[in-house]
């Protein structure tokens, strides 16, 4: 006898966002150890659910599909954050919960709005350069038998550093102005 098929319940994006916003609030450092652990576990669960839902509903992105590539990258970033562990100090635990929260919010946006595109301005430009490189790069796509990324790519490392700088409000140096080997004079002390 087989069990009757059941439809999956829709994601409760409002609850997911509320949990994420609680961790990102200005007073998050005041959370007790128990509260931060509970919120972290909730965020991990939310992240697993929204990743699974997006992967189920969205086909693999095609070339030039910026929203699809953006969602694909956010899923990868979310998976990386799920594998990371919090540090031993309360501030490290809050920081870990906050990166989970940012992934939850970004993926909720992708789930809710199929044509959502992440950052704008210099941050978006740096983000898209990274998104367009990584899916096409054999080194970036190298994984072990468990599906974990093991490839090393100097270009991806450089593009990620540029993206992080742009997120901090620093305009990244265009790729044409970088030196060989992926090293940048403004970051590597050369």
Description:
Mean pLDDT is 77; it is low at 175-190. The chain has eight helices and no strands. It has helices at 13-24, 33-57, 66-83, 90-112, 121-133, 138-141, 154-167, 185-188. Helix 1 (13-24) packs across helix 2 (33-57) and helix 2 runs antiparallel to helix 3. The protein has two domains: 12-117; 119-183, no CATH class. With 190 residues, it is mainly alpha-helical. Helices cover 59% and strands 0% of the residues.
The gist of it:
With 190 residues, the chain is an all-alpha fold.
- Count of discrete alpha- or pi-helical segments spanning 4 or more residues: 8
* Shape verdict: globular
As for the number of domains, it is: 2
Gyration radius over CA: 18 Å
Mind summarizing the main beta sheet? none
Distance between the termini: 69 Å
How many E strands? 0
The helical percent reads 55-70%
Element string (H = helix, E = strand): HHHHHHHH
Which class of secondary structure composition applies to the elements?
mainly alpha
Beta-strand residue fraction: under 5%
Write the layout of secondary structure elements.
Elements: H1 13-24, H2 33-57, H3 66-83, H4 90-112, H5 121-133, H6 138-141, H7 154-167, H8 185-188
Helix pairs in contact: 1-2, 1-4, 2-3, 2-4, 3-4, 5-7
Give structural attributes.
single chain, 190 residues, mainly alpha, 2 domains, 8 helices, globular, disordered C terminus
